[in-house]
């Protein structure tokens, strides 16, 4: 608090005096009321300290005796109630068995006494043969059998428990990852060109389990594999004889590379230095593969996404749109990159509609999950979105091409958030210039195709 030199109205009094301002509540106090105000603040501080000490004591008690936890007490109560129910049920069942057992004994004694008389009579008459003996033996066996294994009583366990089962639910809060904003260039970054340490408007990207980087090097008409921590891509033959490749994926099962060639209008597989045409005569852009090895391809001219079974000669099944271009929920307008999740839902970058669409399995219409509010730089907008990837929490990451940023969107939210980039268009370590493809490695590091800077940027995750 600082001393004031002019007389003003005290907030607690009725006349003007030399007052002192309180920066906390922005009120003016005379000296007398200032002392009282300070006393009130000290009392409030003491309350906070008291609450702090009580909570600290509670934590220490919990450490010393974890059995005092509220959930432990609830479990103990459930245990007591359950045991009481079991004991009561067991008692009732035992009483029924004892009562029935007594009845069985009484009935058996009657039958046994009757058999005893028959045996005595047979013995007295002394005129019996094998038939009589078999009859007596069978009667005795029946009585013994009924006594040892009574047919009208048994124990049955019901399918429904009369005890309420409990379980412990551990609800984890979604972890919203963050990345170092100053990136590391892991491929290219030496200007546009055809050398093995250069890229030329790269598009799609994929990171494998060994952190090797597969890149669709568009204007160089090649697909390159950049080994982890390598300074340049190795030389190759054949895979550098493409025509404007836009996307690349790795088929883990066949250990092959699948590439979409835009200008050759085909999808090829590259394996063991040999090329195989998988699909042709369609205007491809994005590629994806689901857990069942189905191949998904976006067609930017027909404004649709189809699913194909590799090695089967068919025309594919439409899984998104299939209608003429437009901005309705059953339409697309220049579909680009795609992603397929565990449920086979298809995410499509709807480039000219400036949004990201999700098509659930067998859906006739898509859902706008990001953007879709016209082109722009606001947090509820995208501008020509490109690469898309969805993490295990369902968080959607989008390469916002014209806005030079990577956005994260949670389905159902009206706005996204900038996770990297968004610092203006440029070639500094915290800047992007028209990003396209996206990929994560197993550690959660984010890789971005910085297309117009002709490089691949790695954003390291902050743990």
UniProtKB/TrEMBL annotation:
It comes from the Eukaryota. GO terms for molecular function: zinc ion binding. Keywords: Repeat. This is Uncharacterized protein. NHL repeats lie at residues 431-462. CDD domains: NHL.
